[in-house]
Amino acid sequence: MEDRIRKAAEAIANASHVVVFTGAGVSAESGVPTFRGHDGLWTKYDPEEVASIQGFRRNPRAFWEFSKELMIKRKAEPNPAHFAIAELEEMGIVRAVITQNVDMLHQRAGSRRVLELHGSMEHVDCLDCGATYHWDEIEKMLVGDGEVKCECGSHYLKPRVVLFGEPLPSETLNQAIVESRQADVFMVVGSSLVVYPAAYLPLYAREAGATLIMINAEETQADVVFDIVIHGKAGEILPEIVEEVKRHRRINR
């Protein structure tokens, strides 16, 4: 593993346009529950009922009960992987973070250019009157009486996240494609790349000649197309890569 970490760090240190793509595995290390797998949320909840636009329109309360478990119960904080990615951006190496996560942990860690493919919980809109709320206001409702309700009386308060049955935000997806095609290093962290069209992004980068790096807790079917594959916890691996990047830069000044 040390050799692969060193190779990844050398590729990153020598790059001019690094793009990082993150999935649920990064947030899982902060305690955010994953959706798929043995203990995933889909073993407890019906995604059609709690995470589809049709289910939301039928029963918005079910969506918010699900969101309470996702966002409130574990009170997640950024982990060392989030901070490592933000540090690489601060060093001028990472040009964009593309994420499938909606938990805003990258921004809280200090990342500034974050393309949220599935939207974010940061802003919540009333589908009846058009009023907009910030997540802090919604959080107070959830930890209070648990009822998420607009001042107009409507229960149809929907965060700007992409639910099943809704398209990805076209502008964000297009920006992500542009960034992928400009990358000379494209690093995937904590994603098994099973959700499309997001899973196409590393292929766009590869077509443009980028070095592909995969960091994930487990093997994925996509590993075979990556140049450097490292299995393990992102919160342990990425800080080591950052230190190696710094060392490489000191040596090659």
Write a concise synopsis of the structure shown.
The protein has 253 residues and is an alpha/beta fold.
Description:
The chain has 253 residues and is an alpha/beta fold. It has eleven helices and nine strands. The chain has helices at 2-13, 24-28, 47-50, 53-58, 60-72, 80-90, 105-109, 135-143, 170-182, 201-207, 234-251, and strands spanning 18-22, 94-99, 114-116, 119-126, 132-134, 157-161, 185-189, 211-216, 228-231. It is elongated and about 60 Å long. The mean pLDDT is 92. One of its GO terms (molecular function) is NAD+ binding. Its EC number is 2.3.1.286.
Structural class: alpha/beta
How do the SSEs run, as a string of H and E? Answer: HEHHHHHEHEEEHEHEHEEH
Number of separate strands: 9
Low-confidence stretches: none
Our count of helices gives: 11
Q: What fraction of the residues are assigned to beta strands by DSSP?
A: 15-25%
CATH topology of the largest domain: Rossmann fold
The separation of the N and C termini measures: 26 Å
Q: Output the CATH homologous superfamily of the largest domain.
A: TPP-binding domain
Mean pLDDT: 92
Q: What's the helical proportion of residues?
A: 40-55%
Question: How would you sum up the global shape?
Answer: elongated
Indicate the radius of gyration in whole angstroms. 19 Å
CATH architecture field of the largest domain: 3-Layer(aba) Sandwich
CATH class of the largest domain: Alpha Beta
Largest sheet: 6 strands, parallel
Strand order of the largest sheet: 3-2-1-7-8-9
**Total domain count:** 2
